[in-house]
């Protein structure tokens, strides 16, 4: 198959496997989604979902979050790791949202990226999942599978994002990035498949025999 043929097959098959694409992180508004995504850095979604209810009961908005100290936030989010850096970022971005955006999460990628602790991937997730704006956040699963499926060379996460955006229709990005994550977790995990075992890998590369070496 040519690269575009592989991309078309992947898009079609994943839509069959995952007709519904629920957002993995529990949230009730753009602010709680932003905080949950920030906490998910180097942490599983499942653990974040265990931790955030206690935080959001006290502060589900920027205005409420600034009433908590960094130490109070840290006490709650510590199981997510990278504390107190995440707690400091949460408190800091809440202050900026109040000062510059009336307490609301801006539906603007560049404005989001200016917030403490919010990188391009986090901002892209918020744009896609909170505001429905087409985005293609690339996490470790997507970066890995793009290489296994020869959709990108793995040179960088930024390169992978650009390559995938060229291959897939813009109106598919928001659902597709979740579908690839779901498939990577369930069928083509780092340990469960080496590029030769899962359904999509075998379909795309029926003659492949050797494991695929992944660039980090």
List the helices and strands and how they pair.
Layout: H1 3-17, H2 30-39, H3 45-58, H4 62-65, H5 70-77, H6 85-101, H7 109-113, H8 120-131, H9 140-148, H10 157-167, H11 173-186, H12 199-204
Descriptive report:
- By secondary structure, the protein is an all-alpha fold.
- It folds into 2 domains: 3-20 and 137-204, Helix-hairpin-Helix base-excision DNA repair enzymes (C-terminal) (Endonuclease Iii, domain 2), CATH 1.10.1670; 30-131, Hypothetical protein, domain 2 (Endonuclease III, domain 1).
- The protein is 58% helix and 0% strand.
- The longest helix has 17 residues, at 85-101.
Which terms summarize this structure?
mainly alpha; single chain; elongated; 12 helices; 216 residues; Endonuclease III, domain 1; Endonuclease Iii, domain 2; 2 domains
Shape summary:
elongated
Sequence stretches where pLDDT stays below 50 over 5 or more residues: none
Helix content: 55-70%
Largest sheet: none
Order of helices and strands: HHHHHHHHHHHH
Cα gyration radius (Å): 18 Å
CATH architecture of the largest domain: Orthogonal Bundle
CATH topology of the largest domain: Endonuclease III, domain 1
Binned strand content: under 5%
Instruction: Please work out how many helical segments DSSP would assign.
Output: 12
Measured distance between first and last alpha carbons:
25 Å
Quickly name the level 1 CATH class of the largest domain. Mainly Alpha
CATH superfamily of the largest domain: Hypothetical protein, domain 2
């Amino acid at each position: 198959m040519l690269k575009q043929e592989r991309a078309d097959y992947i898009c079609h098959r994943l839509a069959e496997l995952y007709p519904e694409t629920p957002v993995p992180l529990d949230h009730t508004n753009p602010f709680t989604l932003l905080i949950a995504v920030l906490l998910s850095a180097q942490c599983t979604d499942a653990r974040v979902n265990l931790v955030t209810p206690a935080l959001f009961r006290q502060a589900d908005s920027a205005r409420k979050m600034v009433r908590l100290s960094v130490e109070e936030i840290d006490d709650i989010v510590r199981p997510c790791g990278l504390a107190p850096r995440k707690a400091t970022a949460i408190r800091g971005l809440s202050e900026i949202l109040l000062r510059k955006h009336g307490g609301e999460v801006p539906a603007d990628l560049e404005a989001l990226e200016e917030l403490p602790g919010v990188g391009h991937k986090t901002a892209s997730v918020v744009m896609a999942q909170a505001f429905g704006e087409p985005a293609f956040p690339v996490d470790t699963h997507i970066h890995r599978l793009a290489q296994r499926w020869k959709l990108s060379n793995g040179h960088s996460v930024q390169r992978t994002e650009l390559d995938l955006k060229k291959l897939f229709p813009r109106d598919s990005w928001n659902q597709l990035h979740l579908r690839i994550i779901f498939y990577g977790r369930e069928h083509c995990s780092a340990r469960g498949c080496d590029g030769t075992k899962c359904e999509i890998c075998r379909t795309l590369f029926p003659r492949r025999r050797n494991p695929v070496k992944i660039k980090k």
